[in-house]
Amino acid sequence: MTMSAAITGVGMSDIGRKTGRPAMIHLAEAARRALDCAGLTRDDIDGICTYPGKADNSPGMSPLGTGEVRNALGLKTRWHSAVPDGPAQMAPIMVAAMAVATGQARHVLCFRALTESSSQTATRRASIPGAGRARLGGWYSYLVPANAMSASNWAGWMATRYCHEFGMTREHLGMVATGQRAFAQHNPSAVMQAPLTMEDYLGARMISSPLGLFDCDVPIDGACVVIVSAADAARDCARTPLTIEALGSALGSQETWDQRADLTTMGAHDACADLWSRTDMKPADVDVLALYDGFSIFVPYWLEAFGFCGHGEAKDFIADGHIGPGGRFPVNTGGGQLSGGRLHGFGLLHEACTQLWGQGGGRQVADAKTAVCGMGGGFIAGAMLLRRD
Amino acid sequence: MRPLPELTPENTAFWTGGAQGRLMIAFCGACRHAIHPPQLVCPECWNEAIEFKPVSGTGTVYSHTVNHQPWAPDMAVPFALAVVDVDGAPGVRVTAEVVGADPESVAIGQTMRVTFANIDDIWFPQWEPAP
Ligand SMILES: [Zn+2]
């Protein structure tokens, strides 16, 4: 079964650390590039969607909502939405696919904009939920007041349990980080391009054990736009449409980072099982992998969730060279968020599309026709399978 | 200062039980399901008769991490965080600030016991190695 929706264009702003550029300038640049990529004009855009909408949960996390972007870009839309609760940062792309499939819109501009690098201060760190507030509610009120403030802590205890059960070591996670850096050296827009050796990785300071500095992604300022089009409308675009073959959003456990019975799995496992139940394609059919790497440990989790290897086998899969440059299942070929910068999954999807359109330059995977993208960590997960026919 | 949880009808017993030295966990009055974080409705059977009961205050480390990064200006590092399976409340885990132990000494399977730190109107469960 195939959804009647496709990705027809992607665009990314000139991302960076402490760019000093307002979010809207990044967004406009990304939108312009996405329209150029798709061969569309502003007036072709009749839908808009984002995750999570304008929000100030943590500094620079989401400075723009659909209203401001509609106003600034002069969009006249038939459908608009923002999705704060949904299958990870992929949610706007998923609901956009449903919107075009049900005829609500033909071309939906999906965006993610962040200014986490410029916005964070010593007292209000990026990605610390509720930073600066006196009282907290919701799931993180059971974590942050216990001084478990950072997702690096939550991912850290997942990693500790995983390593305990399966014998993964820091070196395996280092292979993820150094492999992605090797890819980033061929990506001019990656924020970290200097060579990264295993010695550099192991020598870096610890953040939340067993995760060190190079296990954590990089906060940046930037924006990314992905255009989702109806299947019939996609034929009008400049490029071969990238058909959304299947989506996976299932979640079987509580929306917390500590209650899932087996923390050597995460929401991704539910979402990926759901995805494969909706297609005849198999992991062996996949050419390019875009796996959420807010922390390096999420990469083995996503590999296992998607079924590229069995539960507990990712350490050997990684050590055997499958995911780095030249591997059969290359992961995060633009450097990922670890080396490319944290665009909350949109950057990973941007890279997957770039690969499927054969524009990966020195990091291009030969004749890439299919890609998976998984966004989110912990209980947050959305999965996608794309194909270029 | 660390942010505090907002007290709500469903969570007040959990955050204030420490005033009497008790770790209070929510249970469904109908099906006995242990509920954490506490809810107003039992997620198993949708019964609304939620009862808080004291548990023994011991538990087992399911996993842990040592935090080295000061995420707030007054945060003293390093310190250990543990995810503790709570005795007497099947399926319930708490994220635990570890006290009274070398952070690097915390281990999976270790038995811990609760102690409480009072800030304002909140009694934070903290966990130390059981003797
Ligand atoms: Zn019940």
Q: In terms of topology, how is this protein built?
A:
The complex is a heterodimer of chains A (389) and B (131).
Chain A: E1 5-12, H1 23-38, E2 47-50, H2 66-73, E3 79-82, H3 91-101, E4 107-115, H4 116-119, E5 135-136, H5 151-166, H6 170-184, H7 198-203, E6 206-208, E7 211-212, E8 221-230, H8 231-234, E9 242-248, H9 267-276, E10 288-291, H10 298-306, H11 314-319, H12 336-340, H13 346-356, E11 370-375, E12 382-388
Helix pairs in contact in A: 9-10
Chain B: E1 4-5, H1 12-16, E2 23-28, E3 34-35, E4 50-55, E5 58-67, E6 79-86, E7 93-98, E8 111-119, E9 122-129
Parallel strand pairs in B: 7-9
Antiparallel strand pairs in B: 2-3, 2-4, 5-6, 5-8, 6-7, 8-9
Feature tags:
A: 389 residues, alpha/beta, Peroxisomal Thiolase, Chain A, domain 1, 9-stranded mixed β-sheet, 13 helices, 12 strands, 31% helix, 17% strand, globular, B: 131 residues, 3-stranded antiparallel β-sheet, binds zinc ion
Please tell me the total number of domains of chain B.
1
What is the name of the CATH superfamily of the largest domain in chain A? Thiolase/Chalcone synthase
* Overall spatial form of chain B: globular
Bound heterogens, unique: zinc ion
Mean pLDDT rating of chain B: 96
Q: How many structural domains are formed by the residues of chain A?
A: 2
Protein name (chain B): DNA-binding protein
Organism (chain B): Sphingopyxis panaciterrulae
InterPro entries (chain B): ChsH2_C, ChsH2_Znr, NA-bd_OB-fold, Thioester_dehydratase-like
Pfam family, one (chain B): OB_ChsH2_C
